[in-house]
Amino acid sequence: MIQIFKHANYDFLNKKWLFIGxxxxxxxxxxxxxxxxxxxxxxxxxxxNMGVDFAGGTLATVKFRDVPDLDKFRNELGKQGxxxxxxxxxxxxxxxxxxxxxxxxxxxxxxxxxxxQPSQTQTGAxxxxxxxxxxxxxxxxxxxxxxxxTQGKTNLNTIGSDNLxxxxxxxxxxxxxxxxxxxxxxxxxxxxxxxxLIGDVNEVKNLSGIPPQIGExxxxxxxxxxASVKSAExxxxxxxxxxxxxxxxVTVVSCIAMLIFVAFRFKSWGFGIGSVIAVFHDVLVTLGIxxxxxxxxxxxxxxxxxxxxxxxxxxxxxxxxxxxxMMKTKRREGLDKLANVAINQTLSRTxxxxxxxxxxxxxxxxxxxxxxxxxxxxxxIGILIGTYSSIYIASPFMLFWExxxxxxxxxxxxxxxxxxxxxxxxxxxxxxxxxxxxxMLAAAGISTAxxxxxxxxx
Length: 458
What we know:
Helices cover 53% and strands 10% of the residues. By secondary structure, it is α+β, with helices and mostly antiparallel strands.
């Protein structure tokens, strides 16, 4: 393997209190943000900016022909009976060297009324309103951006294929088969070639599948609106609550399972506790920063958090496994020293793997767009926090536990108490206050059985 640090000999654990203090500062800042937003008395602020997946509501992407007037759009949504203080409008950033997108991400509060029957679960409750009510209200609001002279005509930028087929049969007097082919051609051109927004009716008159004789009808009975809805999704609050609870359970269960596995594999709860504390630390710091910055938390963020949990645990296990290997050759060394040597020996591996992953995440952050923005930020923060937590959180807490256990053993047998004391187990193996116990030596493949006396030579 490539060695960036060939003879690394840094005293990492000497600075553990600095980074533990930094971690506490980040956790407390995040906790302060959560508590402030939870008890500030404002209805429109929440501890976390929960996405539609968890909070319920409608999330849509709207494309405009020209630069959108967000104030006018918000006012028109208000005219549809939506509380404007709960409406979020976010412009999609333009890419370098590309034409302006003129797209806006629209997030509406939950508009679906749900009535739960006594025998129903929350998820199975029946919605009294159409799940697409948010999209309908957005389309009604966008009608204010169209030319008033187009009133009564069919908008080619918002109509679906089936409805367009019916309109072509009624207004253009086409037979069902010709109308279906023409409707499919227009919709395909709009979605695939024009990015969801046709500029002018004349663009579709010469498309393949459009009968030439309906060109005049298209100009008189149809028009192309100033905006269109590229995508829209709606989630009821009951489904969102179930998804949120499931995400929390999955994260907690995965941490508990890893704690048990690591403790079993290393024959010591100290290694498992150190690993899981580092994982919880990474998740808490990341969520705290998301609360401070009010970045959206959705299902992709949960996927990123689970990825972060596995990534951080893998990085920690590499260090712990190196400690276990060195017990075979340096069994009289203190566990503190072995931990520091293991971190130095795996430093090149940590920098290479974390660095390459970090570059990939940076690329997603710059070029991934708004859809992957929260996912990318979660991984961006997680890699930085997870890399240093494997060194400055997992290892110190493992040492705290093992030293505490060693001191407890010394007190029990009446030996000296101290971080550097060494006792001798009944089988002749050294088990110091540094935490190198016979069980840990056995996990490393070292026999702790008493040696047989040598036969005397005659």
